[in-house]
Amino acid sequence: MCGIAGIITQKPSITRCAQLELMNKVQHHRGPDGEGIWTGEKKQVHFAHVRLAIIDLSNDAAQPMVSKDKRYSLIFNGEIYNYKELRKECQSRGSYFFSNSDTEVIIECFRHWGEAAFAKFVGMWALAIYDEINQCVYLSRDPFAIKPLYYGYHQGDFYFSSEPKALRAVRDEFNEIDEVSVRLFIEQGSLERKDWTFYKNIKRFPHGHFAKVQLKNTSKALEFSKYWQPSATVQRLSYSSAVEKLKFLLEDSIRLHLRSDVPVGSCLSGGIDSSSIVCIGSQHLKPSRFNTFTTHYPNHGDINESQWAEMVNQHVNAIPHYIEPTFDSFCNDFERLITIQDEPFGSTSIFAQYTVFKKIAETNVKVVLDGQGADEAFAGYVGFIEIYLDSLLKQGNHFNYLKEAFMLRKNYALNLPTKSILTNFAKNITQRKATKNPTAEILTSQQADEYLTRLEALAVNYDNFDGYLQNMLCESNIPQLLRYEDRNSMAFSIESRVPFLEPRLIEFALSLPGNFKIRNGLTKSVLRDAIKSFVPRKIANRVDKLGFPTPEIEWMNKAFNCQVDTACSKEWREIVTKHWRSLVEGSHGGCSLSQAIRKKHDVDLC
User: Fold this and answer.
1) What is the pLDDT of residues 78-93, one digit of tens each?
2) 2-228+591-600, what's its fold?
3) Which of 149, 211, 219, 513 is the most buried if burial means most Cβ atoms within 10 Å?
4) Is the preceding omega at residue 325 within 30 degrees of 0, hence cis?
């Protein structure tokens, strides 16, 4: 786990070291165990890297890494969990290895399979690999947006980094705010969509894709190639067979995600997802004991999950750590959290996550597992229930609709609608254009047109339940949750891994019919049955869901002197955006933000 940055120039350049050093300093939290800078022989490719040592702690695994024949140069952020298996494949094709790292495995895989290597990786990554012979730099990002990658152009040069702040530090132009993204967030709650960021001249590199930058034309717009997407084929197998296969895939994924040369622990909410990771992971870690990390609120019983977590801790004899996020700590760390995230965020729940990673940094644990992805893959959110029932109606499956509606209403205390909701789920863009644009008085006419264009691009007519889940997993929900997790964990030099987001497991989950996921009045049915032999029965049968909650409404009203009555509200989005904007545009001693960063790190780019 690391931080990467680079500059690719069309003309030879020898004046990039100061910029690369600054980008490393700004991203130092991502890799405090080492750093390096490398410039290609022709002075067009410039790489920077900060290292968090997780696999092969020796200097043999240092980056930037150059192959022994000097053809390939690599910077890499992430982990390739199946590196041992891939290493054997490469050795059978004639590769020799000089380290025990997954980084060197990436180079050799690329040597043997080229672009096809990305589809062979099981892991999380953002990487850049320079091919000296073909005179191009390949960029690639993992299938689920676990690891970040941002890029931008300036006067024909191509810049990229793990976090926007590294780009913002070296060029004032990268600090210009994208007002359209701001309005999309405030009005629609839109985050981490397409290639948009809150900075006009910084783009998000798409997950599940690769692209190459040709040295002869570094200013050319990137052409992206998708190397992975889940199959649309529905599995034809019995429910019991699906349970057994899921059990195998989940166990195997957790086994791979435990590979590490440093201590591993887990976040634990006491819910189904994190509990299954802890219970299965503990079996593979024996005789070592799992360290678990849980938020608790002694004075807020409605959001306190510590009793569930304690049940799991006792079940596996884990070493528990309980963390209480407080109102005072929220107020004290609020601006730091915004700085860490680089962009606004949708609720205060990520502060609870931030507090957990802050605590983890006080222990010897450097890697933690987390349960992101299971709710989207197996229909765990209560909001999925109505969409599933609606899909049964659309299919004319009235018997199952009545049966499931009765049991689900009983288990989840729901008031279910009788009209179709999938039909009206996507907003009618044509009708929006005919009505008054709510942002017209804030945006310029050009920005307002772009706002509507983006709204139209986001509108997807979900004509089936499976398509809705896939969108939540691959496009809308998961990418923003993973952005929060990456910034919060790396701010404290902690590597966070998400074993539910493994390509084989997700492909299998999305291939299952809806009635394997919502069944007999329970969400995540096939997952519950797959983990019953591992977790306490009361955990497997839980129907309430909290995750990383906070007393959001109480804290908001008290901290910002407002009166809101719902969490994740527009009022919150306006508040966090205002504070974020003040940090980007605010006073920095009479200089720009990028100049202030340079002054802080005592760097002169002139």
Assistant:
1) 999 999 999 999 999 9
2) Glutamine Phosphoribosylpyrophosphate, subunit 1, domain 1 (3.60.20)
3) 149
4) no
For residue 567, give the DSSP letter: S
d(CA 184, CA 182): 6
| 510 in Cβ contact with 223 (< 8 Å) | no
The beta strands (E) that lie in 116-204 are given as 123-131, 136-141, 150-154, 157-161, 203-204
State how far the Cα of 474 lies from the Cα of 503, in Å rounded to an integer. 11
Cα 164 from chain centroid (whole Å): 15
Q: What percent of the chain has pLDDT over 70?
A: 92
Task: Name the residue ranges covered by the structural domains of the chain.
Answer: 2-228+591-600, 239-377+469-512+525-550, 427-456
Question: How far is Cα 100 from Cα 495, in angstroms, rounded to an integer?
Answer: 19
**What pLDDT, on the 0 to 100 scale, is given for residue 428?**
40
Q: Is the pLDDT of residue 195 over 80?
A: yes
From edge to edge, which strands make up the β-sheet containing 367-369?
319-323, 291-295, 264-267, 367-369, 495-497
- Cα 588 from Cα 597, distance rounded (Å): 9
The tokens for 260 are 């590490």
Q: Which two tokens stand for residue 104?
A: 């060197």
- What is the distance between the alpha carbons of residues 36 and 21, in angstroms, rounded to a whole number? 9
* pLDDT (0 to 100) of residue 424: 46
Note the pTM of the prediction, 2 decimals. Answer: 0.93
Cα(15)–Cα(528) distance, rounded to whole angstroms?
57
Residues 346 and 573 sit within 8 Å (Cβ to Cβ) = yes
Rounded to the nearest 10°, the torsion over CA 229, 232, 237, 239 is 80
- Measured at the CA of 31, the angle between CA 280 and CA 277, to 5 degrees, comes to 10
What is the arithmetic mean of pLDDT over 534-544? 92
- Per-residue pLDDT band for 606 (boundaries 50, 70, 90) equals very low
| Cβ atoms within 10 Å, residue 602 | 8
Residues whose CB is less than 8 angstroms from the CB of residue 252 and which lie 6 or more positions away in sequence, other chains included: none
CA 345 to chain centre: 13
pLDDT in tens, 296-320: 988 877 788 889 999 999 999 999 9
H/E run at residue 277 = helix 272-285
* Residue 384 φ/ψ, nearest 5 degrees: -70, -20
Percent of the chain with pLDDT over 90: 76
